[in-house]
Amino acid sequence: MIKSKLEQIGIFNDNLNKVKPSPIHSFDEQISNVPNILKLTIGEPDFSVSQHIKDVALKSINADDSHYSVSAGKMTLRQAASYFLNDRYDLNYDAEEEIITTIGATEGLYALLASILNVDDKVLIPTPAYPVYAEMARINGGQPVFIDVSEDDFILTPDRLRKVIATEQKIKAIIITNPSNPTGVTYSEAQLKGLAEVLRETNILVIADEIYSELNYDANHVSMAAILPEQTILINGVSKSHAMTGYRIGLLAGPAGLIKKINMVHGFVIMTPSNPAMAAATEALAGVQSKNDTLVMKAAYQERRDYLVEKMTQLGFEMATPGGAFYIFAKIPDDLNQNDVAFAYDLVDKQQLAVVPGSGFGPGGESYIRISYAASIEMLKIAMDRLKNYCEDKRMSEIL
What we know:
Pfam families: Aminotran_1_2 (PF00155). By secondary structure, the chain is α/β, with parallel strands linked by helices. The protein is built from 13 helices and 13 strands.
């Protein structure tokens, strides 16, 4: 292995010293080679991309659609995105000036934060939350400010938000994830309006991560962008809604002046998205069959959710019933090991079942585990048998 003297003289961006590896992927990598392991760790849809979407990608390839596009993405895709956001959520965005195509929602978030953060600017993050948010803020010189909402049913309240704003300086943005990863909790229209009343009095940018918006089970999804459009950048895409994680197509939508600046960073980072992937995403967002594709997946996820909630409740786990996404965030029963990291590793060791320790999602995640139900019902039944065996064995050992 080549060793560089440059490693020793501190050639790297100092912000990297503040960044931690993803606890989700680190844990997943460590346990992946365990024999007979059953993993419910990664948020990866288990469905195949629909054939009519794949056909459009193949058509693009066969038509030699292999040249540079524009950094904001093909106009046909942005028009499809505009149609999709209006059809589903009653949002009105101009395809030319208010939408850009990103390399998944992740690159969109990175380009956004890189565009707005100066040194020590703060980003409010209600937790438990997707760990990438905090690390991307740090990479770009910002400071994440965690707001533990675990005592409020995992919902940020207006009173709590107002108190944080009153005590923190240099707040540049807040990230509101709806539906939530890791909890699956969703915000109602009234709850979002309450937050909007507080934020409207400030110059804080709202980053609305709504990548799971199509997987909302118990009510119609309400977008923060519909309530506070002039102050919101919306993040969405086709990864979760259409099982297209590998196609890497995300969307940013917002006021034209903000989108123009974000597109400057975005363009320098990626130049242009892939043409076949954009063609496929265009079909996913505006194709006549695409809405039904998502409904089929959503029905399956809801069945899995209901099954897990019932089985885990019987085992003594407590959880907020997820209103969206495809995660269960469950409190470890009090009579079992409350160290969620130790619990997760022991579960792997004893039953070859992998779930993600909740503390990796920030304050409020301690003593919880996250289970992804982006897996077949058959796999989930095996998982619940293993979890039941684990709990019974632990409880029996305490008696003996």
